[in-house]
Specification:
Layout (H helix, E strand, L loop, with lengths): L2 H12 L6 H33 L5 H25 L6 H29 L5 H21 L4 H22 L2 H49 L10 H18 L3 E9 L1 H8 L1 H18 L5 E7 L2 E6 L5 H16 L2 E2 L4 E2 L2 E9 L6 H18 L4 E3 L2 H19 L2 H4 E10 L5 E12 L3 E3 L1 H11 L2 H16 L7 E5 L2 H5 L1 H14 L6 E6 H5 L2 H14 L2 E7 L6 H6 L4 E4 L11 H16 L3 E4 L5 H10 L3 E3 L7 E2 L3 H11 L9
The protein binds ligand C2E and calcium ion (2 copies).
Length: 655
C-alpha cells in the first residue's frame, strides 16, 4: 500500500459525512442515547482510580485534576442528556458531532496522561489499577463512540497508544504482556468499530431510500395517472383535512364539482385516445384557472373533476369563478384528428352554511351539479337553502316509503289518450298514486324518483302494473293500456324479467299494452336498455318514448330503440298558439315521427285552442286535461260512456 493511498484511507476513516443529513441526524440520535452513559462510566471509573491514589499521590493529581476533568465531562454529559429530547436539524447534528469529534482527542489524552502520571506514586496493586482502568474504560468509550468512527478511532489510538508505549517502557513482564494484549484488542476492536459503522451507514442509507420510495409511492397513489393532477383519494383526504381545520376556525370554504357535457359523445365518436387527450387538456385548462394556492384541483374519475376553494368567497365570487371554468372549457379543443367543443356544468356547495362535514359537502355539491345538469347545462349551480329543504323532503319521503304497505296504499289512475279528430279514447295511461298512511297523498314526481334512489322502484312497478292490467281487463278490447316504466325496470335483467312475468301471467294480450320509457332512463345504459326493451317488443308490446324533446337523445339513439310511438312533451304545447318556436318544434317533431313511421301522441292538451292548433298541424292523438284528468279505475267506464254520448256533438267537454 503506497503512502498516499494509506493517507487517503486514514482521511476517509476520520471523515465525518456532513453531506448526508439523514446520517447526521441518525448519528446524533444514537449519540444522545449513549454519550451520557459513557461520561458516567468514565467519571465513576476515574474517581475509583483517584480514590486508590488519594493517599499516595499529591492532591493536584488525585483531586484537583480529576475535579477539573469532571466539570468538563458533566458539561458534555448534560448537553447530550438534553439532546435526547431535541428533534435535531441536520445543521445542529453536524455541529454537535463536529464538536464531539474535535473534543474526543484532547479528552482521551487528558485522562490517559492523568492516569500514567499517577502510576509512579502507586504500589504494585495501585499500578495494576491504572492498567485495568485504562484498558477497561477505553473499551467502554470505544463502544459508545461507535456511531462516530472518527471519534472512536481517535480515542482508541490515543489511549491504547499511550497504554502500549507506557507499559512496554516499564519493562515489567506483566505490564509488557498487558501492553501486547492491548495492541491485539485494539486491532480487533477497530475492525469491529469499522464494520459496525459501515453497517450503520448502510442501514441509514437503506432507510433513506425506503423513505424516498415511500414518498414517491404516496405521490403516485395521490395522482391521477392520465391527467397528472391529484386524484379522488387525494381530494377526499384534502377535503377532510380542510374540513377539520375549518370546523375549528369557523372559516367558510367551498367545494365545486364539475362534469363535462359532451365528453361521452367525443369518446363514442372518436375513440378513447381522443377521449383521453381531451381529459388531459381539460386538466391543463383547469390547472391554469386554479393557479391560486387556495384552489385544490382533482380528477374524481371519468369526466368528473373537483376543486376545493379554500378561501372565504362570496356566492357571487363563487359564481364568477365557476363561470371562468365554464368559459375555459367551452373553447374548442384541437385533438389529433378532430376539433371538438364541449361544455362543463359546475355544482358548488359551501361550508359551513350548506354542509358541516366533508361527505355532506361533497354530496351537496354533487346534488347542485345534478340539478344544474337537469335544468341549465353548461352553467354554475350553487347549492341553496331550497335544495336543503328538498333533500329533507326527499329523506322524509324515503322514510315514509320504508314504512309503506304498497299493496294497500298504491293505486293507479287512468288518463285517456284520445284521437284528436273525434276525441274518442284509444287508450288510457296508467298513473301511479300513493296515499301514504304517514304523509297522506304524495305526488308521483316525488315518490317515483325516491323509490328509484332507494332501489325499490321495481317492486312498485310490479304492483302498479298488476293493478293497471287488472283494471284494463274490464275495458273494451280495442282500448289500449299505457304503462310507465322506470330506469331500473329497463336497465336490469332482473327488473325486466319481473315485468315480463307480470305481463305474461295477466292474461291480457301483450299487443294491447304500450310501455312508456324516457330518454334519460334509456341513456343510463343505452346498449343494455335497448336489448331489454327489445324483449318487450318481441313479446308484442308497443314501446313509447315519453317526454320527447326534453332530453338530449340524438337521433341515432332513437334509431337504436325498437320504438312504436313517441309522446311529445307537454312543455311544447303549453304556449303553442302564442310561441312560434314551440309551434315550429311541434311541427318538426310531428314530421320527424311521421318520417320514422312512428305514431305520435301530444301531451298536455289543456284548452280548445291547443286542440285547434294540433289539429291544424295534423297531430292524430293527444292527452290532457281538456279531455280528462287522470281518473280512478272505477270512473273510467262512466267517463267512456259520457264521452261516447258527447262524441255526437263532436266537441270535447272540459274535464
Ligand atoms: P308522465 O309520464 O309524463 O305523465 C303525465 C303527467 O302529466 C301526469 O302527471 C299527468 O297527470 C300530467 N298531465 C296530464 N295531462 C296534463 C295536462 O293537460 N297538463 C299538465 N300540466 N299535466 C298533465 P302525474 O300523474 O303527476 O305523473 C307525473 C310523472 O310521474 C309521470 O309523468 C311519470 O313520469 C311519473 N309516473 C307516474 N306514474 C308512474 C308509474 O306508474 N311508474 C313510473 N315509473 N313513473 C310514473
Ligand atoms: Ca308517461
Ligand atoms: Ca310524459
Amino acid at each position: 500500500m503506497s503512502a498516499s493511498s494509506l493517507m487517503s484511507m486514514v482521511r476517509r476513516y476520520w471523515r465525518v459525512d456532513y453531506d448526508q443529513p439523514e446520517l447526521l441526524i441518525a448519528q446524533y440520535r444514537a449519540f444522545s442515547g449513549k454519550m451520557p452513559m459513557m461520561y458516567l462510566i468514565l467519571l465513576i471509573n476515574s474517581w475509583a482510580l483517584a480514590q486508590t491514589y488519594y493517599p499516595l499521590a499529591p492532591y493536584w493529581l488525585s483531586l484537583y485534576f480529576p475535579a477539573m476533568l469532571t466539570v468538563l465531562c458533566v458539561t458534555r454529559l448534560t448537553f447530550w442528556w438534553r439532546g435526547r429530547l431535541v428533534d435535531p436539524t441536520p445543521g445542529m447534528a453536524a455541529n454537535a458531532l463536529k464538536r464531539t469529534s474535535f473534543l474526543a482527542a484532547p479528552i482521551a489524552l487528558s485522562f490517559s496522561l492523568w492516569s500514567v502520571m499517577l502510576f509512579p506514586y502507586g504500589d504494585s496493586y495501585a499500578q495494576a489499577h491504572v492498567a485495568f482502568y485504562m484498558g477497561i474504560t477505553v473499551i467502554c468509550c470505544i463502544f459508545c463512540l461507535m456511531y462516530l468512527r472518527s471519534a472512536a478511532l481517535s480515542v482508541a489510538l490515543i489511549v491504547n497508544g499511550i497504554f502500549t508505549v507506557f507499559f512496554l517502557s516499564t519493562h515489567i513482564p506483566t505490564f509488557v504482556a498487558a501492553a501486547l494484549n492491548v495492541v491485539l484488542v485494539t486491532i480487533g476492536m477497530l475492525a469491529i468499530v469499522n464494520s459496525h459503522y459501515s453497517d450503520f451507514v448502510r442501514l441509514i442509507d437503506a432507510q433513506v431510500k425506503t423513505t424516498l420510495l415511500g414518498n414517491e409511492n404516496l405521490r403516485l397513489a395521490n395522482l391521477d395517472s392520465l391527467t397528472q393532477i391529484p386524484n379522488r383519494r387525494k381530494f377526499f383526504a384534502q377535503l377532510n383535512e380542510i374540513c377539520t381545520r375549518a370546523t375549528a376556525s369557523g372559516q367558510r370554504f367551498a367545494v365545486a364539482i364539475l362534469d363535462l357535457d359532451g365528453f361521452k359523445a367525443v369518446n363514442d365518436l372518436y375513440g378513447h385516445t381522443h377521449g383521453d387527450q381531451l381529459l388531459v387538456e381539460v386538466g391543463q385548462r383547469l390547472t391554469a384557472v386554479c393557479q391560486d394556492d387556495h384552489f385544490h384541483l382533482a380528477r374524481l374519475g371519468g369526466d368528473e373533476f373537483s376543486i376545493i376553494i379554500d378561501a372565504d368567497l362570496s356566492d357571487e365570487a363563487l359564481q364568477q369563478f365557476g363561470g371562468r371554468i365554464c368559459d375555459a372549457l367551452r373553447r374548442p379543443f384541437v385533438l389529433y384528428k378532430a376539433t371538438v367543443q364541449i361544455a362543463a356544468s359546475v355544482g358548488v356547495a359551501t361550508f359551513p352554511d350548506m354542509a358541516v362535514d366533508a361527505s355532506s359537502l361533497y354530496e351537496h355539491a354533487d346534488y347542485a351539479l345534478y340539478q344544474g345538469k337537469r335544468e341549465r347545462r353548461g352553467t354554475v349551480t350553487l347549492f341553496s337553502e331550497k335544495d336543503k329543504a328538498q333533500i329533507q323532503r326527499n329523506a322524509n319521503i324515503e322514510q315514509a316509503l320504508r314504512l309503506a304497505d304498497f299493496d294497500r296504499e298504491l293505486s293507479v289512475f287512468f288518463q285517456p289518450i284520445v284521437r284528436l279528430e273525434d276525441c274518442q279514447p284509444i287508450a288510457f295511461e296508467a298513473l301511479a298514486r300513493w296515499h301514504s298512511a304517514v304523509k297522506g297523498t304524495v305526488a308521483p314526481m316525488e315518490f317515483i324518483p325516491a323509490a328509484e334512489r332507494m332501489g325499490i322502484i321495481n317492486q312498485l312497478s310490479v304492483i302498479l302494473l298488476k293493478k293497471a292490467l287488472q283494471a284494463a281487463a274490464t275495458w273494451p278490447p280495442d282500448i289500449r293500456l299505457s304503462f310507465n316504466l322506470s330506469a331500473n325496470d329497463i336497465n336490469t335483467s332482473e327488473g325486466m324479467a319481473q315485468i315480463v312475468q307480470v305481463i305474461t301471467h295477466s292474461g291480457m294480450c301483450p299487443s294491447r299494452l304500450d310501455l312508456e320509457i324516457t330518454e334519460t332512463a334509456v341513456l343510463q345504459d343505452l346498449e343494455k336498455s335497448s336489448q331489454l326493451v327489445s324483449t318487450l317488443r318481441q313479446l308484442g308490446c308497443g314501446i313509447t318514448l315519453d317526454d320527447f324533446g326534453t332530453g338530449y337523445a340524438s337521433l341515432s339513439h332513437l334509431h337504436a330503440l325498437p320504438l312504436t310511438r313517441i309522446k311529445i312533451d307537454k312543455s311544447f304545447v303549453a304556449d303553442i298558439e302564442h310561441n312560434a318556436v314551440s309551434h315550429k318544434i311541434v311541427k318538426s317533431l310531428l314530421a320527424l315521427t311521421h318520417d320514422m313511421q312512428l305514431a305520435c301522441v301530444v301531451e298536455g292538451v289543456e284548452t280548445p285552442a291547443h286542440l285547434q292548433s294540433l289539429r291544424e298541424l295534423g297531430a292524430l292523438y293527444g292527452q290532457g286535461y281538456l279531455f280528462s284528468v287522470p281518473l280512478a279505475a272505477g270512473q273510467v267506464q262512466a267517463w267512456m260512456e259520457a264521452r261516447q254520448a258527447g262524441s255526437l256533438q263532436r266537441e270535447p267537454s272540459l274535464r
